Give the backbone structure.
Amino acid sequence: MINVEVRLDRDSVIGATDRRLFGAFIEHLGRCVYGGIYEPGHPKADKNGFREDVLALVRELAPTIMRYPGGNFVSGYNWEDGVGPAKDRPARLDLAWRSTEPNTFGTNEFLDWCRSAGIEPMLAVNLGTRGGDAARNLVEYCNHAKGTALSDLRRRHGYEAPHGIKLWCLGNEMDGWWQMGTKTAAEYGRIAAEAAKMMKWIDPSIELAVCGSSGRSMPTFRTWEDTVLEHTFERVEFISLHTYLNNYADDTPAFLASPDLMDHFIEEVVAIADAVAARRDSAKRIMLSFDEWNVWYRTRRNRAKPGWPVAPSILEEAYDMQDALAFGGACISLLNHADRVKVACLAQLVNVIAPIMTQTGGAAWRQTIFHPFSDFSNLGRGSVLRAAVHSPTYSADYLDPRGTVENHCPLPAVPYLKLSAVRDDRAGTLTLFALNRHLKEDMTVDFATRGFAKFAVAKAHQLHDEDLKALNTAKKPNRIKPRPLPDITLRSGGLRATLRPASWNVIRLQGGS
Ligand code: AHR
């Protein structure tokens, strides 16, 4: 048994969560779109071909914003191929995923799907093979009311009212060699600044996310952010971050420690963005869009078989219990930076490194990572408190490869407890998200709370399994699911909870305001 103490003060707040912190991502990749959200002819498809069984799970998962259409795919995408009568749309080679893109699903279908799901859309423009001209045309097509060739084209396509898309990504991972149209920071910075200028001339109400590094282990990380923001600081609201946690080394303690590197990554990008602001003597603060994050390693090198198939079964990572734990740690890292991370997108939504899996023509089910995300999104909204955590620590050596180069990230003092506490005044709740990273020991956590009235426990559940490799499958879709968390003792000025080894825990207290 290990003992941890946590102090929480009602008024010591990191920041309020933005609605868009709880987003996800749909890319034209593998079976994410075709056979995932969209499958005309499936017994559960609606009149648009949207799978109702998937929509029901998406509503339960509750993402708030959805990034589209890529990802690496967007860097070769001609948006014009995906609008207008489906029979006239061209099939194209997608070089990112070595597939054939039939273009039967495009921007308008995506926006219709978002409306069905009650989710805000977030579009990425192609700054890989294309540039500012195609980007400004897409803004005009989507957001201009009428009376121009492109806005009237949208109206002829059946969309009289402008789509009013608010948030846009200026390309994707433009620092990566794998990207179509990779650029240096200076090349990208100039192109992004010009694209941003034209896009905002058309619709000044939009917000823009410029590409940061595609990972913290990129050799260009830091100078990339600095240079790109030097070019774009005045024209953008956000800079992006991407992270995929891995357990290549089969070192579970290090894997569970790895979300702490997301904390470092966020804090480093904030420091660079604020240094760019300081050089300008500017009060403007660039916010962070963590618009790709997840666990991903088993299918990292997975590509379509030769022959340019349509919707190949690639990147279909089967998530186990320990993945859900690392994933929960990532949710906590995002919550604990709610002051600066205003947008975040779980990559991705269905089939492709996803919380929801489907069989084409068959069933849909929840992967293990579905559960911490659902907790994060449904229960994580409010003001995040600055928790003082006094936990025993361990040291870890996490491997974050740079291509084929080993890259060791030493983490000398990882607290066994990773925690976030969110106060929601409207609901009158205090919600605790707690990850016990000790693989063998139960953990008692004594919470001392200040400034709260008397609590009752409204909800308490845990995700735990003796077998860290257990997972959910089509045959056993509920092998891993939340179960009640017993052993919570309320007392004046706090509570005590006992957490199982290697467990994700959520405690929602009511009436604490
Ligand atoms: O999410 C899968 C891929 O990971 C995305 O297409 C790309 O942006 C990232 O490298």
